[in-house]
Amino acid sequence: MIVGLVEHDGGVTSELSLQMLTLGWRLAERLGVPLTALVVGAEARPAVDGLAAHGVSAVHVAVDDRLDEYAPGAWAACIVDLMGRERPGAVLAPGSDRGNEVMAHVGARTGLPMAANCTEVEPGDLGHPYLLTRVRWGGSLLEEARLHGDVKLLTAAPHAVKAEEAPAAGGFSVEEFSPALQDKDFRVKVARREERAAGKVSLSEARVVVGGGRGVGSPEGFRPLEELAELLGGVVGCSRVVTSLGWRPHTDQVGQTGVRIAPDLYVACGISGAIQHMVGAKGAKKILVVNTDPQAPILAHADYAIIGDVQEVVPALVSAIKQAKVR
Amino acid sequence: MDVLVCVKRVPITGGRITLTPDEQDIDTRYLGFTVSPHEECAVEEAVRLVEAHGGSTTALTLGPKAAEDQLRDALALGADRAVLLETDSAEWDAGATAAAIAQVVRDHGDAGIAYDLLLFGNESADAGGYQVGVRVAHALDLPCVTGVKHLEILNGTAAARREGPGGFEIFEVALPAVITVKEGINLPRYPSIPGRLRAKKAPVERHRPERPAPGLEKVRLRLPQARDKQAEMLGDGAAGAERAVEVFRQIGVMPP
Known about the structure:
The structure holds two protein chains of two kinds. Chain A has helices at residues 15-31, 45-48, 72-86, 97-110, 223-231, 240-244, 275-280, 310-326; strands spanning 2-5, 8-9, 12-13, 35-40, 56-62, 90-94, 114-122, 130-136, 141-147, 152-156, 173-177, 190-195, 208-212, 235-238, 265-269, 286-291, 304-307.
């Protein structure tokens, strides 16, 4: 049996969980075993029935009054409890912040190795390692690795596998269970939440992002970029060097350790194109590069390019758009 | 307040990764090295906490002899002590790394240094295993909060804030505790000249732990399929603006 930890937001199954289940049912199919899902907390119930369409033949719902808020240790204890009773060959989770965190706890509790952010999984014979591919450097590099352990613990890299539906093998059942949880499992639990400030378009969801790097020259140099972003209904982003220099806040940073963007257009101004930046911009549909250096590595990622200084080109883009609007 | 902060030596990769012929590593012949970004912020956070609350910062790394450079970087930023768990060139997986770190913490405890806080990066820039901090916490029976972007210590309690679904989640845990941080929690300072000089001369505590058999065993590295594009040149300087506007229209981002 393969178990998949399914995350949900207000009873709606997360996209990354569906991607993980796709990796899961393909793996289960190859091994000729059923795929079951684990959801934590009674409020997950609305998400449960939809899982039948994603190759899941049974859902285990962990129920306990103390599971009202996210507690990584308790979620891991639910998985370990289920592992003891159902003896799965592998446990999968989405490669989200929570998924990676919970599976790290499962690995620590059981002493088993855990492979984060896998893109492909080649199952071995019983008792043999899996051969898998996982992402490194935020996706700029792939690692092929052997995963050992009696139970294989792994998470699915976000957006590596497209979520696909599959009929469940032989029926569909839902079972509630009360995992063995101790008070200590709850010593790390969400104490309170703060809502994100509403209104402004977020960098990760913006349709247009105008990004600036060292080539912008100074904090004031971002003014024309802000104007361009506003005209196109977008927002300003930046590279890591810009936040390190203190020119922009870290919340504007695009990249491996910042925000991952997926706009229709990314205008990259004065950015050389370090791999850590480009993995953050991988979701951009079109990239327009503005750079003085026609040999800059970012040109390999560009759909369109203007060779020139940011402080000359961006104001020219601003006035060209304004003129086009007047006409 | 005594803080242990764990860092990892990683190459500065730039615009393109090249692998060694045996596909086991990144070719670093022409590259410099640095501390993984999240951990750079962990060092800064440790130093700030000690500046505010008193105590000491100990920087630790597990890596080759050359990783001493990254310990000296941490010392230059204000760390007081440095510990090197020296390895040969073989890669250590997360389980082995965590076990070696936990053993040092236990040994230091026996020697009278009890850490109030263990800081890690949320994940290393290169291997990205997302688990060393959690495993160390379990080995030492400490609470662990991961992915933290704001940290406050008050009366022996850590209030740790991180991004969560739709906003922020705040955790409160009693010290001693393990916290893994993300870049953005602070803006690391530049090392001062006196800091650099002090770092040069500071002693480094050294150990040579045995590498256990890996549970996650690297077979080889490979590069994702390159999708090098041939960019359409729109012109030089301001002259490129007019065609850019046509492009904006084509892809539907021009304002009405």
